[in-house]
Design goal:
The protein is α/β, with parallel strands linked by helices. The chain has 2 domains: 233 residues, Zn peptidases (Aminopeptidase); 69 residues, RNA polymerase II/Efflux pump adaptor protein, barrel-sandwich hybrid domain (OB fold (Dihydrolipoamide Acetyltransferase, E2P), Beta Barrel), CATH 2.40.50.100. The protein has a 5-stranded mixed barrel. Helix 1 crosses helix 6. Bound molecules: zinc ion. The site of zinc ion has 4 residues, from loops.
């Protein structure tokens, strides 16, 4: 059966308890659109907020993509009110290639938001999201992971924004995702390009990035943890019955990414989530002739948020160390 056109769906008048497959067109190429954004729509037992779980912004992070598939399978529409929207493969060309970016234009979808409807293909995907999906949302969680090259501690990242209702809701959403580490990033982080949650928040939608896992973490574990966290957020949004679980303690961090000067093989000398001291060796880069080319040290006391588990090219990320800002975010 052909998916429905998401742009034409009236989310306030969906049949109660339905699961509907839809899509948003991006770039037609004759009879099919290989870049269309698939949208899984679960309509609860009565109208309510629209809650979106987005995945596949980066094509090689399949933990979040399969978590959305499992949510679609396992979430019973009779157990919630409102509409849950799962976008399993936002960047479909990159997901098909199992690559962070697609080979079509190599643009990082999470740095070019809100995109351009008349730009390169990845910019068009971003524009389709912001033109046709984002305006209909009350909440957005963009799920990421370390992919095949990094391992990442469970962490929520959100942008600071003063005073707005959406910003206050964003902080609550971050806490309900139930990770110990929370990275509250300044609004300016990320250089000139916008991330998906950053631009969504600028447009008034409470939005966070949720990261966990990577090559060293079993896929099934990630899928279960992501599903659990999303259900907690549905309770926060008043869409599902039950008490919202909050932690007694959150650790606020602000992150620092290290780029290797040399390419080669990365040998991590610390573990993800491990506390490290300023100057401590956290990794080494060895070249393909077996020579130690670089020793990576932590620039400050902190916690290993993410680190490489693969070979690297000159300039690639090696490790991200979060500087502990304060506890009890
Ligand atoms: Zn990512």
């Amino acid at each position: 059966m052909e998916p429905l056109d998401f742009r034409e769906m009236d989310l306030e008048r969906l049949e109660a308890g339905a699961k509907l497959l839809a899509s948003v067109p991006v770039a037609g190429q004759g009879t099919s659109d290989p870049c269309a954004i698939p949208v899984m729509v679960l309509s609860g037992r009565q109208p309510g907020p629209v809650f979106c779980v987005n995945a596949g912004t980066h094509g090689d992070e399949h933990e979040s993509q399969v978590a959305v598939h499992c949510l679609w399978d396992e979430l019973d529409p009779d157990t919630f009110q409102g509409v849950v929207i799962g976008v399993p493969h936002l960047n479909m060309p990159a997901c098909r290639e199992y690559s962070r970016t697609s080979s079509i234009d190599l643009l990082d979808l999470n740095r070019i938001c809100p995109g351009r409807a008349d730009g390169f293909l990845t910019e068009r995907i971003a524009a389709a999201f912001f033109d046709h999906i984002c305006p209909r949302l009350d909440y957005l969680i963009d799920v990421h992971s370390g992919g095949p090259r990094m391992d990442t501690a469970p962490i929520v990242i959100y942008r600071e924004q003063e005073g707005s209702k959406a910003a206050a809701r964003t902080v609550e959403l971050a806490r309900a995702l139930d990770t110990e580490l929370v990275w509250r990033a300044p609004a300016s982080l990320g250089g000139g390009g916008g991330t998906l949650p950053q631009v969504a928040l600028e447009r008034g939608v409470p939005a966070v990035t949720y990261e966990m896992g990577g090559r060293g973490v079993p896929l099934d574990h990630c899928v279960r943890e992501i599903g659990k966290a999303i259900r907690n957020c549905l309770r926060l949004a008043g869409m599902m019955e039950g008490e919202v679980a909050f932690r007694d303690r959150y650790i606020l961090v602000d992150g620092w990414f290290s780029h290797g000067v040399h390419g080669g093989i990365y040998l991590a000398r610390a573990a993800v989530s491990e506390a490290v001291r300023e100057g401590q060796v956290v990794g080494e880069i060895r070249d393909f002739d077996g020579r130690l080319r670089e020793t990576v040290r932590s620039p400050h006391d902190g916690i290993v948020i993410s680190q490489r588990v693969s070979t690297l090219r000159p300039g690639d990320w090696t490790v991200c160390i979060g500087r502990t800002a304060e506890s009890n975010a």
